[in-house]
Design brief:
Elements: H1 3-9, H2 19-56, H3 60-63, H4 68-89, H5 93-111, H6 125-144, H7 158-177, H8 186-191, H9 193-204, H10 213-231, H11 240-275, H12 283-286, H13 303-309, E1 314-319, E2 327-332, E3 334-335, E4 340-341, E5 356-357, E6 370-380, E7 387-388, E8 390-391, E9 393-401, E10 411-414, E11 419-422, E12 431-439, H14 465-475, H15 481-495, E13 496-498, H16 515-523, E14 527-529, H17 531-544, E15 550-555, E16 564-568, E17 572-580, E18 584-588, H18 618-621, H19 629-637, H20 647-683, H21 687-704, H22 715-722, H23 726-738, H24 745-765, H25 768-776, E19 784-788, E20 791-795
Parallel strand pairs: 13-14
Antiparallel strand pairs: 1-6, 1-16, 2-8, 2-15, 3-4, 5-10, 6-12, 7-11, 9-12, 10-11, 15-17, 17-18, 19-20
Length: 809
């Protein structure tokens, strides 16, 4: 082999330049470049942070105060920090995004949700759920809920998420895309879309008020334009005079730009305040918020307002009623211990349904047995609530007159409850028509052996002891659900006395239907109350028996003819409904007749044997049939306190699981890929390809540690440029590929061991961050080609330019 040939293949080290001398020559230039890039990155990060903070001031009217700025600051830290760290450590873009996601969940509690139970810093399951929910649901809730946006919790994380996501995208464009295109203007220009997205988000969820909108917009534009004009530097301008001239021109242009922007901002602010201030378009005013029944007071809580305060007021006129018809106002399925109300829609109970937008033909309710129909015309007079008076099970609701035709978008209907409402409320003069089916009444004996439908209703608190004790005496001896309910209905009607608590009543009757009122109702010698108390008491008793009872509030006017009926406040009533298989909802009316209450007896306590003999605890004498499935399930699932870990340990473990998983799962995937790459190179193919694989594997691992591997060089040249310990591996790989004899298994094993030792030595010589980068990086070189004794071999996954020596050409 000639000297020239040796020089081409790396065999003549004297003809190669010294790697140490080359590095010494390049060091000042690389240091200057790195310093310039570092300074530029800091300036870029400062500009993005300033523009994002300026844009986020628009959140102030929606959140009511400036506390959201802490969340914005945390978002900037989570967005800009991982981008700078990823660029400094040479992480891939995917790994940088994973670090940002882990930081988002790790620091979200401290910056956005500081009300955590773990000192306001460590995340909990609740705060992690809010942080995960914010990117999806916070946008909808922010424009549909009233301001200030304090609840639910994920709304507080919205500025944090917006600042983090937008600043991360902008910085990744400036740190990854812009350096590859140093003379292109579009990367930094596109990076400005991040702060602009924050500005648009603040406007989107804002209100009619604006925080110096024109001034903020002017400052935003000036900072962005000045940054774009100065960021490009002076390029290849080497002359000092030329640099001074260019500097003076840019400074003059910047001054003119600031002056013009100030004038335009001032003029624009005056014009805007005089002309378009009242024409501001707000998204929350264009979007119809979802109906939240819990924001309205339970209609049953206002029962006495009709019966006691407005008994003679004509609420509305109804045409088409027949004798015995009841007008349904609201169906109440949930009992909180204070009042009966609509089931919380957040629980998504199919049995309770939900009030959703509906057209004229309302959703049908198949759970009804009807043989008659009604056509009702209603004209509103002295009624102004949201609930739509109806009859039976409506099938068609036509909003005909008054202000209703223009407010069709406010109509909601619940097929499960067979009722509707108008979110903006009914007004005097409104008219509508209802076509409905009327549930048949059961005939005697028809439901004696029928089963009650098993429906999932919200749990209710424990019933008062006096009520449960009276219930046991009412249902004693009855086994059929229908007969048990009829026994309760008949007993309340027989033992109770009717009183609205008005001045004409002989004894007072306190309003309300909470647990305290229920306890009082059954503790006195005589039961005194009206439909509000009796319907509530029977519904609670039915729930104690495991039946899905609900309370219905409405009106029972006296229909004298088929003409128009005036419905007055004194017609208000309430009843109980329970569903039966293959029949439908059956109404029970436990309210007694309007009889006088005995005088001077309502304040005496009950004469019961328990005054002389102490009764055992209620939980011991409750019969098995009174235990609901929910009670049995709670008793069976009650954990042993001795075997339960402290709650803070579980919360801390769950809080740390997310960031740890985001850190270790990518490491595991990359480790598996590296192991597969090494196994293929070490054990697949002919001995010469496996020897080439040892070289390729070592050089890839060097590159993953951050060593600069020159492209298109021979093995000897690459070894000299990367690390001295690679020289022996390069020589033996060349000998195996180009030599006359194939290497033995012992030689291959020794070659791979030396390659591993070389990489281990390199790992010890670099710092911690480069070793960490090497674990996250995965380098896969192009496939290596080997010519040997006239054959052409390809080995995927190996590296190096295997070229035939001169004697083989």
């Amino acid at each position: 082999m000639t000297a020239a040939t040796k020089g081409q293949t790396g065999g003549g080290p004297r003809e190669m330049s010294s790697p140490r001398r080359d590095r010494a020559t390049r060091a000042p230039q690389e240091t200057a470049t790195t310093s310039l890039m570092g300074a530029r990155s800091i300036v870029d990060a400062g500009v993005i942070a300033a523009l994002t903070t300026l844009a986020s001031l628009g959140f102030a009217p929606a959140y009511g105060s400036g506390w959201f700025l802490l969340a914005v600051a945390g978002g900037l830290l989570v967005g800009i920090g991982p981008a700078l760290i990823g660029a400094r450590l040479g992480l891939t873009r995917v790994n940088t995004i994973l670090v940002a996601i882990a930081s988002y969940f790790l620091f979200g509690t401290a910056f956005a949700l500081p009300q955590s139970d773990l000192g306001g810093v460590l995340p909990t399951l609740a705060t992690l759920a809010d942080l995960a929910r914010a990117p999806v649901f916070a946008w909808r809730d922010a424009v549909t809920l009233s301001t200030p946006l304090l609840e639910p919790g994920h709304l507080a994380a919205l500025p944090y998420f917006v600042a983090a996501a937008c600043s991360l995208v902008s910085m990744m464009l400036l740190l990854w895309v812009a350096p590859a295109r140093p003379h292109a203007v579009w990367p930094p220009t596109v990076a400005l879309l991040g702060p602009l997205a924050v500005l648009a988000s603040a406007i989107f969820i804002g209100t009619d008020d604006s925080v110096a909108g024109v001034l903020r917009g002017g400052i935003f534009a000036v900072v962005a334009l000045v940054w774009l004009s100065w960021r490009r530097g002076f390029g290849n301008v080497a002359s000092k005079d030329a640099r001074r001239a260019l500097f003076r021109a840019r400074a003059l242009g910047t001054g003119v730009l600031v002056l013009v922007a100030a004038l335009l901002t001032t003029a624009g602010g005056l014009v805007a305040s005089a002309t378009v201030a009242d024409q501001r378009v707000v998204a929350r005013e264009q979007i119809t918020p979802p109906f939240d029944p819990l924001s309205h007071t339970s209609p049953l809580a206002g029962f006495r307002e009709y019966s006691k305060l407005r008994p003679d007021a004509v609420l509305f006129d109804a045409t088409g009623l027949q004798g015995g018809d009841r007008i349904r106002l609201a169906t109440l399925e949930s009992y909180s211990g204070k009042s009966w109300q609509i089931a919380d829609p957040q629980q998504s109970l199919e049995a309770a349904g939900s009030y959703t937008l509906s057209g004229r033909v309302v959703p049908s309710n198949p759970f009804v047995t009807a043989s008659s129909q009604r056509h009702l015309d209603v004209t509103i007079r002295d009624y102004s609530d949201i609930w739509l008076p109806s009859v039976g099970v409506p099938t068609d609701v036509n909003l005909t007159g008054g202000s209703l035709p223009e407010r069709r978008g406010d109509f909601r209907f619940n097929a499960r409850a067979s009722g509707g409402l108008l979110t903006s409320g009914l007004q005097e003069g409104d008219t509508y028509e209802i076509a409905a089916l009327v549930q048949d009444l059961p005939i005697e004996g028809q439901l004696d052996n029928a089963d009650v439908v098993d429906l999932a209703y919200p749990d209710m608190p424990a019933a008062p002891a006096a009520l449960v004790e009276r219930l046991q005496s009412y249902v004693a001896g009855e086994t059929s659900p229908y007969l048990q309910l009829k026994a309760i209905e008949n007993a309340l009607m027989a033992e109770g006395y009717f009183s609205h608590g008005t001045a004409s009543d002989t004894v007072p009757s306190r309003a309300g239907h909470g647990l305290d009122r229920m306890q009082e109702l059954f503790e006195l010698r005589y039961l005194v109350g009206d439909e509000e108390q009796y319907a509530s008491a029977m519904a609670i008793m039915a729930r104690q028996l495991g039946f899905p009872a609900r309370v219905v509030m409405g009106y029972a006017p006296e229909v004298t003819s088929e003409g128009t009926t005036e419905v007055r406040g004194s017609d208000v009533t309430a009843w109980v409904e329970v569903p039966f298989e293959r029949f439908g909802w059956v109404a029970f009316d436990p309210t007694p007749e309007r009889t006088d209450v005995p005088v001077n007896t309502t304040t005496d306590p009950q004469s019961k044997p328990k005054a002389q003999v102490r009764q055992p605890p209620q939980t011991q004498e409750k019969p098995d049939e009174l235990l609901t499935s929910a009670d049995e399930r709670r008793q069976e699932e009650e954990p042993d306190d001795e075997e339960t870990l402290p709650g803070w340990i579980l919360t801390l473990g769950a809080s740390l699981a997310v960031p740890l998983a985001l850190f270790f799962v990518p490491l595991l995937v990359i480790a598996l890929l590296k192991r597969r790459r090494r196994r293929r190179r070490q054990h697949e193919g002919t001995p010469d390809l496996r020897a080439a694989g040892a070289w390729s594997d070592s050089i890839d691992r060097y590159a993953e540690l951050g060593y600069a591997v020159p492209p298109r060089r021979t093995r000897a040249q690459t070894a000299a440029a990367v690390h001295p310990s690679l020289a022996s591996i390069a020589d033996r790989s060349d000998l195996a590929v180009f030599g006359d004899e194939l290497p033995t298994e012992e030689q291959l094993a020794l070659l791979w061991a030396d390659a591993d030792a070389s990489v281990a030595e390199a790992r010890r010589s670099v710092g911690f961050w480069r070793r960490l980068r090497g674990r996250f990086a995965f380098r896969r070189r192009q496939r290596a080609v080997s010519w040997r004794r006239g054959t052409f071999g390809v080995h995927r996954g190996t590296a190096g330019n295997d070229r035939p020596g001169g004697e083989h050409v």
